[in-house]
Each structure stands twice: as C-alpha cells, then as structure tokens.
User: What shape does this take?
Amino acid sequence: MSETTLKPIGAFSWNELMTTDVDAAKVFYGDLFGWGMQKCEAGDMDYSMATLGDQEIAGLMAIPKEAASMPPSWGAYVTVADVDALLLRVTKLGGKVAVPPHDIPDVGCFAVIQDPQGAMLSFISYKK
Assistant: This one.
C-alpha cells in the first residue's frame, strides 16, 4: 500500500477508473499525464496501477459485469475507520447503499453509496 492511500479519516485517498477499454485508457492517460502503468495482482480481476514516479496514484479496471450498464467513469474513495458503521449513518441521513461492503485482500474493505441527491461515492477502510 502506498503512502498516498494512508490519508486521515475523512480524506479522499484513492481514485479509480472503471472503463470499457482498459488498454486504451492506459495509453490515453499515460500519454496525457506521463503516468506509468503496471498490472497488479488482484485475484481474477485485471487491475492496473497508474504511477507518477514511484507513487501509486490511481487504479484502472474494466467495468464489472454487474455494472455493465454504467458509462466509463472515475470514482473517488474516502478513507473511513469502519465501513459498516458509516453505512448505518448513510441510511439514517437519507442515502442509499449502492454496493455493500466488500473485502479487498491485503487492502481493506470498501462500499459504495449514493447520497440523497444521487451522487455516488466510495468509502474504504485500509488494513493497517
């Protein structure tokens, strides 16, 4: 885990592109920003890490089958202490759980919510 993901609770800590053509996105963003690209071990998922120098700065992946109708988009993650506890607060405040908690091996736990106005946001608690 890079130092960029070790942000304080409540801070944006990670950005991730879900797209229909990962290889084309890697070329585009690599050329646009000078990012390096490297494949990562992520179980059966094809996941790539964008790097700037020696810093991991973003992830790129294909849109999952269960979200096939969504357009390619960037998503942001906010660091939280406890995903489950925060999801209870989301629903009390009028939001919805879009993706229930999922563990990412060796990384942590994440979930995706929709706020009362419809905006989507991901939360993540990192393993120490």
